[in-house]
TrEMBL record:
The gene is NCAS0A12680. It is found in: Endoplasmic reticulum membrane. It comes from the Eukaryota. This is dolichol kinase. It is an enzyme of class 2 (transferase). The chain crosses the membrane at residues 20-37, 106-123, 135-156, 168-188, 208-230, 242-258, 264-284, 305-325, 361-378. Coiled coil: none annotated. One of its GO terms (molecular function) is dolichol kinase activity. It is a multi-pass membrane protein.
């Protein structure tokens, strides 16, 4: 009933008419992800999707509150859901203001607000893994630091301080306060040490982890300068997809060697990328302008629509989400192989387009073939996909490839999550 109501209201059309795909995207991903991996939050996350309704605020908030009142099974749960609803609304409004509904549209803002509400508040931090606890604590530290900087920025503006002094002050506060807050806010259950000291001992306490870290650092030190130097020899699309393929190479083997360490690294990388975007967004001296110029050189039309460069953040989230939730490499496969092949081959040799899109059938076929081959290698030679047959993996790759070819939404989020859902549904 709730989903049918939302589809009618968001679409403003008859209940028998198919809704816009963006609305299906908003409903399907949180609902199915909750249902398959955190069943007790399924109804709550569906209620949060009501925030996308294009109706006055005085109707929207009471409507969500009414549904929460019906779904809550106790007073404690009622208050928990109520606070979660308000947090979700605040996050969504903040994202809309920052992205100006250009970098992030209404659907993106609502989807990310639902994810952040779950990570920051709804999911009990004592139950999930160490990687989740690190992700949660790091995100809270990041947002608190940004809030502190926002207040200080407002004060410095009123005091009419020199822009260079203001910029350097905000940068200094960020690089000092953020690490300190992370050390205080990351709560690692059953570990008495400070998180920073524990992490250092954790990495140095294993030869495998030291080897993984050394390989990562070596690749970054060698590859980043070379990609920047030889970028002019490739098209923008090809130079962007190089990063997708490199991440596939850098994670698949290490994840088999030490999955927890890789998940901790990915959790930290998500927050690191948000920090880089924050420095770039405000162009804080001394590195903000330089970061902006380098990232803009890889920006596509989506990044140029608004003030936020979203592609690299979407990429790390799309790759990390299936690994963090389900230990699944489908994000690596879909973005490192499928999306890259579809974009490059479809763009160069594609002739037959899917109706109503710029994407080609040739690109879709390359997605399906490429992801199927890599899935076969990972299953039979690297011990991934233990709970799903290869024939069902072919269905996952095929259906996801068709979706990628027919959707104009951001593939970096949609396809990995969709593949993760399909994998779970088709597992033994």
């Amino acid at each position: 009933m709730l989903l049918s109501f939302l589809l009618r209201k968001c679409n403003d059309r008859d209940a028998n008419t198919l809704p816009q795909f963006e609305i299906v995207y908003l409903l399907f991903l949180p609902f199915m992800t909750s249902f398959l991996f955190k069943k007790e939050l399924t109804i709550f996350n569906s209620i949060l999707a009501l925030n996308a309704l294009d109706i006055p605020l005085y109707e929207k908030i009471p409507m969500q509150a009414l549904f929460i009142g019906f779904s809550a099974e106790s007073d404690a749960e009622l208050w928990e859901y109520g606070y979660g609803m308000l947090l979700n609304f605040s996050i969504c409004q903040t994202l809309m203001k920052i992205g100006q509904l250009k970098s992030l549209d209404v659907i993106d803002c609502n989807l990310f607000s639902i994810v952040l509400t779950n990570v920051l508040y709804m999911i009990d931090p004592e139950l999930p893994s160490l990687s989740f606890q690190i992700l949660r604590g790091s995100l809270i530290a990041f947002f608190v630091t940004v809030a502190i900087n926002y207040i200080i920025s407002s004060l410095l503006t009123k005091m009419k301080k020199n822009p260079h002094i203001k910029s350097l002050s905000l940068f200094s506060i960020f690089v000092i306060v953020f690490p300190i807050l992370m050390d205080q806010l990351i709560q690692l259950e059953s570990i008495d040490e400070r998180p920073s000291m524990w992490l250092l001992q954790y990495v140095l306490g294993s030869s495998a982890r030291k080897s993984i870290l050394l390989v990562w650092l070596s690749f970054l030190l060698i590859l980043i300068p070379n990609v920047l130097i030889f970028k002019s020899n490739f098209s923008l699309n090809t130079s962007r997809k190089i990063w997708h393929f490199l991440i596939l190479l850098l994670i698949t083997m290490p994840f088999q060697m030490d999955p927890l360490f890789v998940k901790i690294a990915l959790s930290g990388t998500i927050v690191l990328f948000l920090s880089v975007e924050y420095l770039r967004f405000l162009q804080l001296e001394p590195f903000g302008a330089y970061i902006d110029s380098k990232l803009r050189s890889f920006a596509d039309f989506r990044d140029d629509k608004g003030p936020i460069i979203i592609s690299y953040i979407y990429l790390i989230i799309g790759i990390s989400t299936p690994l963090l939730i389900n230990d699944s490499p489908v994000g690596l496969i879909s973005l490192g192989v499928g999306d890259s092949l579809a974009s490059i081959i479809g763009g160069k040799w594609g002739r037959y387009h899917w109706p109503g899109t710029r994407k080609t059938i040739e690109g879709t076929l390359s997605f399906i073939i490429g992801t199927s081959i890599v899935a076969y290698i990972l299953k039979y030679y690297m011990e991934y996909f233990a709970d799903i047959t290869f024939s069902n993996l072919l269905w996952v790759c095929t259906i996801s490839g068709i979706l990628e070819g027919n959707s104009e939404l951001n593939d970096n989020i949609l396809i990995p999550t969709y593949m993760m859902i399909l994998e779970k549904l088709l597992s033994n």
